[in-house]
Specification:
seven-stranded mixed sheet, 7 helices, globular, RibA-like_sf, hydrolase
Length: 203
């Protein structure tokens, strides 16, 4: 199997970023490899080099959850858990990837919602639209971790694929920290599909 090229990473911008969770530094990155290009935003708090492995969250963009507070998914809840945990420790990194709808894009995600309303689960909906269950690629976060000189991290995630992707990038995951949202009726089936069909670790 041909190995895909490493992303060519370019830092576009960097600025102070006060938030309700605390004072961060915000970065904008562009990554290009092969015929693929992607952007990511990073929120950094504290000195990542001091102390033990910092807490890191790789979060995929979810307009419906992160912005509109959708209760179909657990995305906004996980985002807030991550920012709260990083702020509580006073150091850490949140990588916000532009991979809406597990990589199928916003409008296709809305089409998937329509199919879910007709009885499909999230995996079936993606497949009926001609996509895989999860098209996300985590090469860019790996390159970003290397940019910040990180060799070890504690990864805030329920997704084993993210752990494997970080380690493929040459960064050791010393601990997988669960990122568990409350189970409410409107996202119960969504979480069950993540657990039963996608292998997410929802203890």
């Amino acid at each position: 199997m041909k190995k895909s090229p490493k992303p060519r990473l370019h830092k576009v911008a960097e600025a102070d970023f006060p938030s309700q969770f605390g004072a961060f530094r915000i970065y904008g990155f562009e990554g290009k490899w092969g015929d693929r290009a992607e952007e990511a935003v990073v929120l950094k708090m504290g000195d990542l080099a001091s102390g033990g492995p910092p807490l890191v969250r790789i979060h995929s963009q979810c307009l419906t959850g992160d912005v509109f507070h959708s209760l179909r998914c657990d995305c906004r809840a996980q985002l807030e858990i991550a920012l709260t945990r990083v702020a509580g420790e006073g150091r850490g990194l949140l990588i916000y990837e532009h991979q809406e709808g597990r990589g199928i894009g916003l409008l296709n995600k809305l089409r998937a919602y329509e199919l879910q309303d007709q009885g499909a689960d999230t995996v079936e909906a993606n497949e009926r639209l001609g996509f895989g269950s999860d098209l996300r690629n985590y090469q860019l976060p790996g390159a970003i971790l290397q940019y910040f000189g990180l060799r070890q991290v504690r990864l805030l995630s329920n997704n084993p694929e993210k752990v494997e992707a970080v380690e493929r990038a040459g960064v050791q995951v010393t601990e997988r920290v669960p990122c568990l949202a409350d189970v409410v009726d409107t996202r119960k089936a969504y979480l069950e599909t993540k657990r039963d069909r996608m292998g997410h670790l929802l203890e």
